[in-house]
Design goal:
8% helix, 155 residues, 11 strands, mainly beta, five-stranded antiparallel beta sheet
Length: 155
């Protein structure tokens, strides 16, 4: 009845006292109460109320586990949760909208924003020198990319 999930945070306490979480897949959502959450390597092992067998746990595969924003562990200054960044509009210094953050690629080094643009995906390093203003409450990230970055990183 337990499932594993890829851990996206290494903050102490990020996976304790989870309470209720929302499991999300395209076209499907399920609210679940977490009975047990423990970390192992880069994974979180979760046991949900009412999920008592392998087949029941297997039904949850491929889901994203989302916790209410009010329960986030304080990441500290200049730190953000991926869920805060996804959906942010990315704009250039002149106010031109580049696109919307569709994903954040964790690399072990500098994370990379995958920005959906009318021309396709553009990859933008999530560094303070490029992402000059980050406002997750307003769902905006202002970027000042070096010359050629947007063209070179277009996928």
């Amino acid at each position: 009845g337990e499932v594993t999930a890829r851990a996206l945070s290494d903050l102490p306490g990020a996976y304790t006292d989870l309470g209720e979480v929302l499991l999300i897949r395209p076209g499907w959502e399920r609210l679940c109460r977490v009975e047990v959450a423990r970390t192992y390597a880069k994974k979180v092992i979760l046991r949900f109320s009412g999920v008592n067998s392998y087949p029941e746990a297997q039904e949850l595969c491929g889901s994203t586990v989302s916790r209410p924003a009010l329960e986030f562990v304080d990441a500290g200054p200049d730190s953000y949760y991926i869920s805060q960044l996804i959906g942010c509009l990315v704009e250039l210094p002149d106010g031109t909208i580049l696109g919307e953050v569709g994903d954040v690629i964790t690399t072990g080094g500098t994370d990379v924003l995958s920005v959906r643009t009318p021309r396709g995906e553009v990859l933008v390093p999530f560094t303070r020198s490029i992402c000059i203003r980050i406002d997750p409450e307003q769902k905006r990230i202002q970027v000042d990319p070096p010359d050629g970055l947007l063209e070179i990183n277009a996928v």
